[in-house]
Amino acid sequence: MDLETAFRNQAEACGRLGSPMYAELLSRAADDVVDGGPTAAVLAGYEDEPGPSALALRLAGSVHRLVLERRAGAVAAYYPSVGGTWADEPGWAAVRELLADQPDAVREWLDRPPQTNEVGRSAALLGGLLELSAAWPGRPVRLLELGSSGGLNLLADRYRYRTRDGRDVGPRDSPVVVEDAWTGPVPTDAAWPRIVERTGSDVLPVDVATTEGRLTLTAYVWADQVHRHERLRGALAVAAQVPPQVRAQSAGDLVDAIDLEAGPDGALTVVWHSVMWQYLDRAEQDRVRSRLDALGAAASDDRPFAHLFLEPTRRSPDEDHEFWVVLESWPSGGAPVRRFLGRSRGHGVPCDWERAGAGDPAPA
Question: What is the end-to-end Cα distance of the chain in Å, rounded?
Fold first, then answer.
């Protein structure tokens, strides 16, 4: 995929996901690439980057970082995240001038993957955990996350969620309230998950206890989506009280180290992840998949195991990829059962819950 196509695709996606500012910004950046302007100069050497590497979002995050650090001059006046107001013509002109004047500063972040650590995705994941809580009531939960970034979704049980029909679940005093979390029959009356272990892994973990770590996560939140910035600030406050443990290791290394016999008696071990699978190469995906199947085969009623994820997934070969919440479990260590619990969005909300059901066989 060439740069122009990648940027136009990302611009369209931003528009669908409620960011008219980034839709316009990246569309104009695509035009500038075609015209050989400052955007093309900044991206020189990245022409062969694949679409899943999200180069457009890496560029947007790098510019946003300079705005947050007060290094972007006139650009800040157009960024809602710092009190500005976006306007297409002057806003793009200011960004284009920044790319021309500070290309090296912009390039500083182009080699790192976007690490939004989107707290809204906790709704999709927590909904799956409620399904598990309904199936295994009262079980202590060992929660392990792949691609954790700053580990904020490991704190999903510390956030409050509000359904579209007005039901509230979760701690009443949480500084995070995920509005419009779910529609449909999510089991909000299930026992609240009792998480006794929460561990994540990331090849480039973000330390949310540091100024640099908080800046990193903030920079990758789209600048005109103020509600997401509010959720992030609340989650960072929770993390200050309950620091997430995120190891600097690959997804494969984390799953290889899982011991189902560890933890308290009867513990339910859950591996989850959200919008990170595309960043693993095929060999790493196969390694993780093989280990998950081995863990499932070793599971028992006394030591159950589940795999829960929110990723672009096809429910059937003739359907398009959508952001499905998928739960895989291995009853009594038998054949895996895959359940499509609900459709979500890239940023997690709203999540349209469908069913728990008996599930569909996982593909071979």
Answer: 29
